[in-house]
Specification:
The protein has a two-stranded parallel ribbon. It has one domain: Rossmann fold, CATH 3.40.50. The protein is mostly helical. It has helices spanning 8-19, 32-39, 46-66, 79-88, 101-110, 121-127, 146-158; strands at residues 23-25, 71-73, 94-98, 137-141.
């Protein structure tokens, strides 16, 4: 989890590959209308996100039912969203990628293949509710090399 530009997709793909389990980028579950809104520089409201969160919850419940596991890259900015996901998948382990706002902004300015632009960063940072101590998961410095972040994530999940 984390705001746009935190490295969720890159780290998630590497983590899934290393663990030999499926990967899903939750951005692919956004509606066309939500993508268009974000591409236009407008942040989503909780009402806009509700169907997306439900789709993610359904995927998590389905993955749980198969027993195969899943690495999901998702902003999951608010505690309420993560609580909804935990209701669908109680064993959910969340890795929050911590990245400074300056680095997030630089990453967003230099990428061209995504509908989320640097214009949305302030609203994402305003919505961000960091992982709380009572949530199953861990916060990891996402500004280190991806291989180090993946290694740390695996170690944290294994010792949980």
């Amino acid at each position: 989890m984390g705001p746009a530009g935190s490295g969720k997709s890159h780290i998630g793909q590497d983590l899934a590959h290393t663990l030999a389990i499926p990967f899903l980028d939750a951005d692919t579950l956004h509606s066309a209308a939500a993508r268009t809104k974000m591409a236009g520089g407008q942040g989503l409201t909780d009402d806009d996100r509700a169907p997306w969160l439900e789709r993610i919850s359904t995927v998590l419940a389905g993955s749980r039912a198969t027993g195969k596991g899943l690495v999901l890259a998702c902003s999951a900015l608010k505690r309420a969203y993560r609580d909804q996901f935990r209701a669908a998948c109680p064993e959910l382990f969340v890795i929050e990628l911590e990245v400074s706002p300056d680095v997030l902004g630089e990453r967003l300015r230099t990428r061209s293949s995504h509908f989320v632009s640097v214009d949305l960063l302030p609203s994402q940072l305003a919505d961000l509710e960091p992982l709380a101590n009572d949530e199953r998961g861990a916060r990891i410095d996402g500004m280190r090399a991806p291989a180090v972040v993946v290694h740390d994530a695996i170690s944290l999940v294994a010792t949980d």
